[in-house]
Amino acid sequence: MGILVGYARTSTTEQEAGLEAQQRDLQAAGCERIFAEQVSSIGNRQELARAVEFLRDGDTLVIAKIDRLARSTINLWEIVRDLDTKGVGLRVLNLGGEVVDTRSATGRLILTIFSGFAQFEREMMLERQREGIAKAKAEGKYAGRKPTARAKSAEVLALHVAGRSPTEIAKVVGIGRGSVYRIIQGA
Fold it and tell me: Is the Cβ–Cβ distance between 177 and 170 less than 8 Å?
């Protein structure tokens, strides 16, 4: 009989409470080892790679929710394929804590359905977010992301060519005069 190994993930460091809740749930489920990280699901998930490396034949990977493991159904099945190759099962706690045996047709069906719901939920959230941004832009309340250093450099150089003083440029762009001088000298 193998051991239970947990994996917890949140996308950002601001979601500390969510990560702690997942770890608490994984401990309550009996996980002997828990791998946790704060990284986007499309980022380099080193702890997930370590967890998969750690797992042995007969072990079970335990996650709190499907979307903590994968962002899309395709990505989920890539991970499940890797687990299958090692003889590792998968347990999803928000599915009632039942072991979803990905080696059986029923288990694969259940996982596919719930994965589809998770992907749908994510896409709906993104759609609502885009609608909210569009509304805020229409009302003049959306500033967007802060300009990148490259965008600021281009703005500094354009203002410099237009004859503006370094002090004026610094005020317009919102950076220090020293930065203005460095950008101009580096051009």
Answer: yes
